[in-house]
């Protein structure tokens, strides 16, 4: 198994990055490839999980060991494969995610793509108590935390639809969201304003 790749980041695509090592370009699928955009043409280290199928060998990559560990735990849940796990992790806050599992907050979990009521209950059943040893829980009040988590997810979803209506592409939106999320912004209007400011700056 390939545990990690260390090489030059050559390309960033909608769902993956290309890392060159010894003249060979490795395509690595990531939860948010644009999180690496500030490191383009620089040497980076990506922690990887190698998924082997009969018809393909696929590399999934993560910025740190925590993300990789969570991915491995997610694909251990009945009904969640690598593609589904990547979809869940594309907008995840690990501390909040673990908090929701420990609080058995199935409603929060259904905010992620591909996660319905059945899958959310399975995540809680399979992962409750298994992540707290490595990941910290949010220290906020339980009810407030759950409300804030759902609001944050909805905020980005609503902002994305508004930006699409203005003519921006999914790729462009992902690029700016990767920057906005680092500022811990959750309000829909603020997300839109900051995103538009970044679009204007890049033009």
UniProtKB/TrEMBL annotation:
Start and end residues of each stretch annotated as Domain III: 153-203
Any single Gene Ontology cellular-component annotation: cytoplasm
Taxonomic lineage from the root: Bacteria, Bacillati, Bacillota, Bacilli, Bacillales
UniProt gene name: ruvA
Helix-hairpin-helix DNA-binding motif class domain mapped to chain residues: 72-91, 107-126
Record-linked InterPro entries: DNA_helicase_Holl-junc_RuvA_I, Hlx-hairpin-Hlx_DNA-bd_motif, NA-bd_OB-fold, RuvA, RuvA_2-like, RuvA_C, RuvA_C_sf
Keywords, comma-separated and alphabetical: Cytoplasm, DNA damage, DNA recombination, DNA repair, DNA-binding, Hydrolase
Recorded family membership: Belongs to the RuvA family.
Subunit (UniProt): Homotetramer. Forms an RuvA(8)-RuvB(12)-Holliday junction (HJ) complex. HJ DNA is sandwiched between 2 RuvA tetramers; dsDNA enters through RuvA and exits via RuvB. An RuvB hexamer assembles on each DNA strand where it exits the tetramer. Each RuvB hexamer is contacted by two RuvA subunits (via domain III) on 2 adjacent RuvB subunits; this complex drives branch migration. In the full resolvosome a probable DNA-RuvA(4)-RuvB(12)-RuvC(2) complex forms which resolves the HJ.
Pfam families, per database record: HHH_5 (PF14520), RuvA_C (PF07499), RuvA_N (PF01330)
HAMAP family (UniProt xref): DNA_HJ_migration_RuvA
CDD domains in the record: UBA_RuvA_C
Compartments where located: Cytoplasm
Function: The RuvA-RuvB-RuvC complex processes Holliday junction (HJ) DNA during genetic recombination and DNA repair, while the RuvA-RuvB complex plays an important role in the rescue of blocked DNA replication forks via replication fork reversal (RFR). RuvA specifically binds to HJ cruciform DNA, conferring on it an open structure. The RuvB hexamer acts as an ATP-dependent pump, pulling dsDNA into and through the RuvAB complex. HJ branch migration allows RuvC to scan DNA until it finds its consensus sequence, where it cleaves and resolves the cruciform DNA.
Organism name: Cerasibacillus terrae
GO BP annotation list: DNA recombination; DNA repair
Domain writeup: Has three domains with a flexible linker between the domains II and III and assumes an 'L' shape. Domain III is highly mobile and contacts RuvB.
SMART domains from the UniProt entry: HhH1 (SM00278)
Protein name: Holliday junction branch migration complex subunit RuvA
GO molecular function, one term: four-way junction DNA binding
